[in-house]
């Protein structure tokens, strides 16, 4: 059963999560964001630790990753300016439904918890799913 607008929302800080794994992402940021998007799509049904699926997943991208497109299971939102500002805005709009923001950015964690979201680190989406 697909998750509707009241299902758990997982917002992923694309730049932060991509940058957490030294896999050569800096050579092609767009391709690295696509790899992350595809990994997230495989998590949409089952969820992540402490947040069972199905999930509504939003991947926020910025900079060179702005051209990454959505796929079934993952909506990609390109930040016109600061990715952190868009993530904080999306988290604030999620009031009333479970919302987890995946980032290691301390200031962003503070901002989103202030509006009722919880946070998880990048490892929560870099688990045992193989590429």
Low-confidence stretches: none
Distance between the termini: 25 Å
Give the amount of beta strand, in percent. 15-25%
Q: Helix and strand string, N-terminal first?
A: EHHEEEEHEHE
Number of separate strands = 7
Total of DSSP H or I helical runs spanning 4+ residues: 4
Strand order of the largest sheet: 5-4-1-6-7
Roughly how much helix do the residues carry, as a percent range?
A: 25-40%
Largest sheet: 5 strands, parallel
* Morphology call: globular
Indicate the mean pLDDT: 88
Rg from C-alpha positions?
13 Å
Helix- and strand-based class?
alpha/beta
What do these coordinates show?
There is one protein chain. With 131 residues, the protein is an alpha/beta fold. Helices cover 30% and strands 21% of the residues. The chain is built from four helices and seven strands. A hairpin with a 2-residue loop joins strand 2 and strand 3. The longest helix is centred in the N-terminal third of the chain and has 15 residues. It is globular, with a radius of gyration of 13 Å.
């Amino acid at each position: 059963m697909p998750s509707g607008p009241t299902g758990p929302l997982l917002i992923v800080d694309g730049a932060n999560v991509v940058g957490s794994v030294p896999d050569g992402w800096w050579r092609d940021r767009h391709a690295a964001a696509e790899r992350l998007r595809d990994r997230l799509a495989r998590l949409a049904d089952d969820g992540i630790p402490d947040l069972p699926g199905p999930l509504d997943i939003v991947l926020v991208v910025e900079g060179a990753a702005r051209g990454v497109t959505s796929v079934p299971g993952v909506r990609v939102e390109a930040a016109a300016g600061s990715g952190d500002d868009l993530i904080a805005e999306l988290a604030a709009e999620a009031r009333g439904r479970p919302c987890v923001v995946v980032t290691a950015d301390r200031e962003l964690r503070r901002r989103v918890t202030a509006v009722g979201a919880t946070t998880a680190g990048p490892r929560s989406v870099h688990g045992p799913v193989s590429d």
